[in-house]
Design a protein that fits this description.
elongated; 34 strands; single chain; Elongation Factor Tu (Ef-tu), domain 3; Arc Repressor Mutant, subunit A; Rossmann fold; six-stranded antiparallel β-barrel; alpha+beta; six-stranded mixed β-sheet; 34% helix
Length: 643
């Protein structure tokens, strides 16, 4: 280990593939790896002393094409089955080992069940120690294996043979590994690199080092990464892959990361290291769960406590589904509620085990990594998960919007097996097909958006009915009625409704697009009555308050008259009609055309009104740009300007 991170930098351009061994204890997994690679995967002193694999071991071989193939050696003893699961969650193909003497054993069966639950579809079965038994026994074991795997809906699994004394068997194994490796699809780089830690240790002169399998993207030297659940950002000082220091670790490879500024004690197996994208986390996941068929059927009760294992982490949690119990061979949507936070993606595989019992209960795939607690009593959730089960990007987006209603683009499906570019392109397609709405930087569920549109238009119609003489209503009033919408989205909704000719906005007020005030005959008679009252005493004009007291049932009508300037509201709430104002204004203008200025006293003498009305009148003329105030007197603005 001391030599780690020394040597020339390299960048591997080959597709990285990882095999995982599986099988019963002492069936020859570690010996097989040594024969293939020359590396002893038993690294711990206790493993070497006891002669059995306890923890995960790692090795690799190089193919004739120069491709690096990683191999993870997992323990076969029933007491270390959790370590086996952790090792197998990150492999592309399996090598299931069966001792020619002992045949298919209990742990072989459980390991094979785990392989199937993790959906590892490429692999082979190797009958080992063939030199220690008769050819007839080898054939007997081979036939039993063929019967065991017959009819399984998986690609045909080749069965090979291995003996330390037969170099040809080693050659055939290497050939088969290369063949399987070439058939494994290229891994998809979605720009969201993740590495679940499986080992943590110190190296003298380098510091803290973690290892794991890199998925979903690449990592580069000196890049800053985030840690979960530590919630820290750290720099990658150095990287190593398959014994060589590298500038860039590529997707699918086994990687050792030298982390800057962290102590070994701060990190643990199961911690997540991820790249630039900020992942989200929670304590609840919705899943599709499969309980494999068993000879001895067992029941899983709703609400059972269990161990939930995904990648290299084990969580303690409780399971909830839509019936009292599940039995072997059944499948169901379920929810796992964990005690500690998880940071997973839809599509991540998992295994469940019951605490204290050394058997695998089942496994499956995560469908919602950021679920909230809910009941399965209503069909809503099962239907919702049914739409997500194939992990189709369109359905993931649409179902996510059904749940959250409104979300910013950069936050949508962050924890998903799709790149931000793919998500953005799919959003445009869904938007063009009116399956969602894009407003500024927001993505909105179509049903929710349409409900908001209807809410606004219905509200406006009710307001127009209740206040028939109001041309419009303050925008702030509508914002308060839609308090659940962020400010930016409310503005987008208003713009959308204006473009769709659903509403009009004028001077900060909103109205229905086709709304127009239509006065009834009775209302016209009421207006006539108000105007006659004002004009009856033009030298004793009422205030707005006095007018409303005189006509207590005409409150809304008076507001309408003021807004539409059918009557004029001056300072100090003085009310006059346009005719009265026009007459007084003309007298003052004619006087000023022959005289340079006019005082308040002169206005009083000419109009026979009190100062109470004169000041608001002159202020109105000032506001209209007719007069200017000069040293306590008024002058015509046009005369002043010409001078």
């Amino acid at each position: 280990m001391i030599s780690l991170f020394t040597g020339r930098m390299r960048v591997f351009n080959f597709i990285m593939v990882i095999f995982g061994t599986a099988g019963h204890i002492d069936h020859g997994k570690t010996a097989l790896i040594y024969a293939l690679t020359g590396i002893n995967a038993d690294r711990l002193p206790e493993e070497k002393k006891r002669g059995m694999t306890i923890d995960l071991g790692f090795a690799w071989l190089e193919t004739s094409r120069g491709e690096k193939i990683g191999i993870i050696d997992v323990p076969g003893h029933e007491n270390f089955i959790r370590n086996m699961i952790i090792g197998m969650t990150s492999v592309d193909a399996f090598v299931l080992v069966v001792d020619a003497k002992e045949g298919w054993k209990l742990q072989t069966e459980e390991h094979f069940q785990i392989i199937r639950l993790l959906n590892i579809q490429k692999g082979m079965i190797v009958i080992t120690k063939t030199d220690l038994v008769s050819p007839e026994r080898v054939q007997e074991v081979n036939q039993a294996i063929e019967e065991r795997i017959a009819g399984i809906s998986i690609l045909k699994i080749p069965i090979l043979f291995f003996s330390n004394k037969d170099n040809n068997s080693i050659f055939q194994l290497k050939e088969q590994i290369e063949r399987l490796s070439a058939a494994i699809p290229e891994k998809k780089d979605i720009g969201k690199p993740r590495l679940f830690v499986d080992r943590v240790f110190d190296i003298k002169g380098s510091g803290t080092v973690v290892t794991g399998t890199l998925i979903n993207g690449n990592l580069r030297q000196n890049q800053y990464v985030s840690l979960f659940p530590l919630h820290k950002k750290v720099r990658l000082r150095q990287l190593q892959s398959y014994g060589s220091a590298v500038e860039e670790a590529t997707i699918g490879s086994r990687v050792a990361l030298n982390l800057s500024g962290l102590k070994k004690e701060e990190l643990h197996r199961g911690d997540l290291i991820y790249g630039n994208q900020e992942f989200q986390f929670g304590k609840v996941v919705d899943v599709i769960l499969t309980l494999p068929a068993q000879k001895n059927s067992y029941l899983l009760k709703n609400g059972s406590e269990l161990d939930f294992i995904s990648h290299t982490k084990l969580w303690r949690g409780r399971i909830v589904f839509n019936r009292k119990e599940l039995k072997s061979g059944e499948q169901s949507y379920a929810q796992i509620r964990c005690e500690e936070p998880l940071c997973l993606m839809p599509g991540d595989y998992f295994i469940i085990r019951l605490p204290g019992i050394n058997i695998t209960i089942g496994g499956g795939r995560v469908l919602d990594a950021l679920a909230s607690r809910h009941s399965f009593n209503r069909p809503l959730w099962s239907n919702w998960l049914e739409m997500r089960k194939n992990l189709d990007i369109k359905q993931l987006i649409l179902t996510e919007l059904q749940k959250v209603k409104v979300i910013k683009k950069e936050e949508l499906l962050v924890n998903s097996p799709y790149s931000m570019e793919e998500i953005g392109q799919t959003l445009e397609v869904l938007y063009q097909n009116l399956l969602l709405f894009l407003i500024k930087n927001w993505v909105i569920d179509a049903q929710f958006w349409n409900s908001q549109v209807k809410r606004v238009t219905d509200y406006l119609e009710r307001m127009h009915q209740d206040y028939a003489l109001k041309a419009g209503f303050p925008l702030l009033q509508f914002k308060n009625s839609l308090s659940s919408l962020p400010d930016e989205l409310f503005e987008g909704l208003i713009d959308f409704l204006v473009k769709k000719e659903k509403i009009k906005v004028h001077n900060g007020e909103v109205s229905s697009f086709n709304h127009a005030i239509a006065l009834s005959l009775h209302q016209k008679e009421m207006i006539k009555e108000v105007l006659e009252y004002i004009e009856k005493k033009p030298k004793q004009l009422p205030t707005e308050k006095e007018l409303k007291m005189q006509f207590p049932k005409y409150q809304e009508l008076i507001q309408y008259l003021i807004k539409e300037e059918i009557i004029i509201l001056l300072e100090e709430q003085i009310i006059m009609t346009p005719e009265i104002y026009r007459g007084m204004k003309d007298i003052i203008i004619n006087y000023l055309k022959e005289n340079k200025s006019i005082s308040i006293g002169q206005v009083r003498e000419m109009l026979q009104i009190s100062r109470k009305y004169i000041i608001p009148l002159l202020t109105k003329m000032d506001e209209e740009g007719i007069t200017l105030r000069r040293e306590g007197q008024r002058v015509l603005k046009e005369q002043e300007t010409s001078v």
